[in-house]
Amino acid sequence: MTVVATPVTLTPTPGAAMTDAEVHRIRNDFPILGTEVNGTPLVYLDSGATSQNPLSVLEAEQEFYEQRNAAVHRGAHALAVDATDAYEDARAAVAGFIGARTDELVWTSNATEGINLVAYAMSNAALGRGGEAARRFSIGPGENIVVTEMEHHANLIPWQELAARTGAELRFIPIDDDGALRLERAADVIDHGTRMVAFSHASNVLGSIAPVTELVGLAQAAGALTLLDACQSVPHLPVDVKALDVDFLVFSGHKMLGPTGIGALYGRRELLNAMPPFLTGGSMITTVTMERAEYLPAPNRFEAGTQRISQAIALGAAANYLHETGMERIEDWEMRLGERLVTGLDAIAGVRVLGPAAGLPRIGLAAFDVDGVHAHDVGQFLDDKGIAVRVGHHCAQPLHRRLGLTATTRASTYLYTTTHEVDTFLEAVAQIRAFFGAR
């Protein structure tokens, strides 16, 4: 069974700005948020790493196993047809959530796999796989790939490996001392030898939002492809892939209320159908002989083997939950929380906040350094008070190194975070230096 290529458009849900009262009601949908840690209510400020799941998502996966469990795109019996319909309905929901067609959304294990899929397809094209249609993906000596200095390792290492396999050069657009992208340097870095420009929509460390229009324009002028790492934007901002005008976009389900083990790659239909496959095997072929195989159109050509069926269905439920809440409203709420975080942290002596200053756009997270106290000690102090945050380099070692740091502490919010939780966190951070005797 081939995916029906249906354009899907979700109408934005209008509504008044979110309030703490509404957020408290939303929290009732998330069983884990009622947990206590060390005898105090959990304050979960690590949604940038992994978000929590509402009941509708948990129930969607359970319902599949209880009532629809069967292989998809394989059986002709009623249960298999029902499972396939649910699986493809989820694809339509997630595709519509980002403004894509159903045949432009490939299921992956996570965003990292999606980036690797594109990178390996390019190296397969460099080996001559895919024929004439795939030549635009071929890359080799004298050509280059461009990333930024603030990338998550998942959007850096696959391109390092692609450069190593093909002899291409890996370049990066630098940041300044405050972590801002030096856009004036981008025009020098991106040239007519550039085959791919890959960058994050929102930084998982800085909270800053990339100048997508400007970077895509430079890439298109050079004849290069673009890939947007949207792990920190799709869950938190309204995202329309057609308006962004990128060629590829990746995101992970576990950061947007969905389960682990599921993510998605968006690609323009004509590009996906021209790309040579990355993983091969069953389910993604039309004809196989002992000498060769022919492949299905996208997205099936990139979904070899038994698929992540229950996870995809649960991710569809997560997309519907976010849509019904309203992404514009979620964006507004989290930007207000982000402003509260930055303003509060700036007021604490000895704390350095990374990323845009208070008053400038950022998503609802803040990474910071406490003078004289290691980030791991900061995290342990907060955990003792029931506050969950992320510590370390956040899979962005080059960024931290550029800013003169080895590790930071990161607090990240979501639609279920209250202003009281942010204030509880800030009160705790204000006690850290004195507790550790830092001077």
Query: How many helix segments?
Result: 15
How far the N terminus sits from the C terminus, by CA atoms, comes to 66 Å
Low-confidence segments, ≥5 residues, pLDDT <50?
1-13
Give the number of DSSP strands. Answer: 17
Structural class call reads alpha/beta
Enzyme class: transferase
Organism: Arthrobacter echini
Domain Aminotransferase class V: 43-425
Catalytic activity: (sulfur carrier)-H + L-cysteine = (sulfur carrier)-SH + L-alanine
Explain this structure to me?
This protein is α/β, with parallel strands linked by helices and 439 residues long. The chain has 2 domains: 20-52 and 326-436, Aspartate Aminotransferase, domain 1 (Alpha-Beta Complex); 62-323, Type I PLP-dependent aspartate aminotransferase-like (Major domain) (Aspartate Aminotransferase, domain 2). It is 37% helix and 15% strand. The protein has 15 helices and 17 strands. It has helices spanning 20-27, 55-67, 78-97, 111-126, 157-166, 183-189, 212-222, 241-244, 269-274, 309-325, 327-346, 375-384, 397-402, 419-429, 432-436; strands at residues 36-37, 40-41, 43-44, 105-108, 144-148, 169-173, 194-200, 225-229, 248-252, 263-267, 285-288, 293-295, 351-353, 365-370, 387-388, 390-392, 408-412. Strands 4-10-9-8-7-5-6 form a 7-stranded mixed beta sheet, sandwiched between helices. It has a 4-stranded antiparallel beta sheet with strand order 13-14-17-16, covered by helices on one side. It has a two-stranded antiparallel sheet with strand order 1-2. Strand 5, helix 5 (157-166) and strand 6 form a beta-alpha-beta unit. Helix 11 runs parallel beside helix 14 (419-429). The longest helix has 20 residues, at 78-97. The relative contact order is 0.17. The model is unreliable at 1-13 (pLDDT under 50). Pfam families: Aminotran_5 (PF00266).
